[in-house]
Amino acid sequence: MFMTSLTSILLTQSFNYIRVGDIDGFGYQTGTAPGATGPQGPEPAWPFGSWQSGISGCWSTPFALTNSVGDPINVDGVGVLTGGDFLPDLDCTGDTRYDSDEFNNQESLEHDDLLVETLGCSNIASAGSVYTDAGLSPSGTGWLDGNVAPSSIPFGVSPSFQFDYFVANGGLTPGANVFVNVVFADYDVVPAELVYTNRFGATTTAYLTTQDNGLGDDGQIQKATAILPFSFVYDSVPGGWSGLVKVQLNAPNEPFIAVDYLEISISPLVLPEGCCCWFDENGVQNQAVMQEEHCMDVGGTYAGNGISCEVSPCQPATGACCFLKDYGVMWCHDNYSASDCASLPLSTFYPGQSCSDIHCPVDPIVGACCYQDPDLGWTCIETEEVKCLESYGGTWYFGQPCAWIECPEAPSTGACCFEDADLGTLTCLDGVYEVDCLQIYNGTWYSGSTCIDIAEKCMDPRGACCFQDADTGSFDCIDGVTDFECNIYYSGTWTAGATCSDVDCCPKLGACCVKGVCVPTTIEGCHAAEGVWSGAGVLCDQVTCPDPCVFDVTGDGMVNFGDLIAIINNWGVVCP
């Protein structure tokens, strides 16, 4: 009679979910303004009278709940607390833990273990809401900063939940997967697992993923989904389907954890992931946490939903190994690991296969290839002939590994000393090949040496430079400069290998006769005046300048037609 009435009630409804507890952010709702009215209605007031509640810096007025690193517990500020948000650090200690941050935000129905929400089914005897919206810890301390927790909360980090419900015919798709969703928080001490038990006593286990407290995840809220087979949960009964499954949260080492709700739904909260082991195109074994479908796409082996690679690491796989046994002869061995196979010449590893499954090539398709790398010099790789010739411009050795041949030795490098055309000085470069030093730099190469080793050899000659100061007009001297520097930068006179104490920079004066007049000057000044210089150190008293020829108007030493033309051109000019 009971099943008949349920069938008539649910005849037109499709199953959507059955939920133990409710979606209310662990009772904190949005967690943004305790005691205020939020978008979902009244926010819960401060959950208990903390002796720290009056201290600003952790909370302000109205009390703003923050996580262990002082950030808002509602990360995006949208909706109720959910995956990616946080439980609050209630006593401002910089962490979320037992004896410190336990809370109880339960409604009366949760308190009485009666809060079950359904859509498209009828609840029969589902239970477990007494474990939701409250901090669960073995000790039960932390309430009212040291007082004993309310006696209604059954403490211990092993809460049990039960789904017992009925779905009328037409409300389910027989054979479809069943999604069990859970929202939980502050799981940071391994292990933690959800053990599912059906009506026949069969069990299956899903493992939860820990948060990373080192990355600021203390108190983090997470979502998880387990996929159960239809037959594991449902049994056909008159008028529909009986759903029955028990869920045990086992966290034997976890001192503090919280659950918002559990539900059986037609939609997953998250697509479950687990450890996947697979081999890439090079035969290298890899492992990573991914969705089962992705694992199948890469041809891998899936460990199971929620099972990490730490819990179920990949086992070294064996397989067939084709390798070069002798010159031009390929061979196959069974039960080789990937690393053992890779140690053999020209080998190819076939994981999970035997030699009877594969055909090693009669002739090897790869061989040693010697080519000259611009940075490394002569190098050997094992590759195909066409790639060796066209891509590397190398010499290919059929069916031979690099270990069997000797490529030419890589040329040595050294220091190259050359003249820099821009600087006009000798410059040195380390690590240069001889051919590059000679052809590119037109320099001198020193095998195996460094520029430090040849510092004295690769240096322009130095000397003293006499120059005239453009500002004062006086003559000065500078030591330790090159000929190039003296000429370009000082317009001076350079003496190789000398110091200023070795040279006399004073100008060398001598008697200079200019048009019958003697003037003491340098040879350069005398020539510029078109005079006759008698030599350095000769005084005007020591020379007699010839009288000028007054008829040589043009001053070319001759009296000729040119002088007449000059007189005519200046006829009538009044001389001063």
Overview of the molecule:
There is one protein chain. Among the domains are: 17-35 and 42-50 and 58-265, no CATH class; 366-395, no CATH class; 414-457, no CATH class; 462-496, no CATH class; 510-561, no CATH class. It contains ten helices and 32 strands. The strands form nine sheets. Strands 1, 4, 6, 8, 11 and 14 form a six-stranded antiparallel β-sheet that branches. The model is unreliable at 1-12, 45-57 and 140-156 (pLDDT under 50).
List the helices and strands and how they pair.
Layout lengths: L1 H9 L6 E5 L15 E2 L2 E2 L65 H4 L4 E4 L2 E2 L11 E2 L23 E9 L9 E8 L7 E6 L4 E5 L13 E8 L1 H4 E4 L2 E11 L6 E9 L7 E7 L5 E7 H6 L3 E2 L15 E9 L2 E9 H5 L5 E4 L15 E7 L3 E7 L1 H6 L4 E4 L14 E8 L4 E9 H6 L4 E4 L15 E6 L6 E7 L1 H8 L2 E4 L12 E6 L2 E6 H6 L3 E5 L24 H9 L7
Antiparallel strand pairs: 1-4, 1-14, 2-3, 5-7, 6-14, 7-13, 8-11, 8-14, 9-10, 9-13, 12-13, 15-16, 15-17, 18-19, 18-20, 21-22, 21-23, 24-25, 24-26, 27-28, 27-29, 30-31, 30-32
Q: Please report the number of helical segments.
A: 10
Helix/strand structural class = mainly beta
Poorly predicted tracts of residues: 1-12, 45-57, 140-156
Terminal CA distance reads: 150 Å
How would you sum up the global shape? elongated
Radius of gyration computed on alpha carbons: 48 Å
Strand proportion: 25-35%
How many beta-strand segments? Answer: 32
- Average pLDDT level: 80
Summarize the amount of helix as a percent range.
10-25%
Main sheet makeup: 6 strands, antiparallel
Notable features of this structure?
disordered N terminus; 10 helices; 32 strands; 6-stranded antiparallel beta sheet; 576 residues; 11% helix; mainly beta
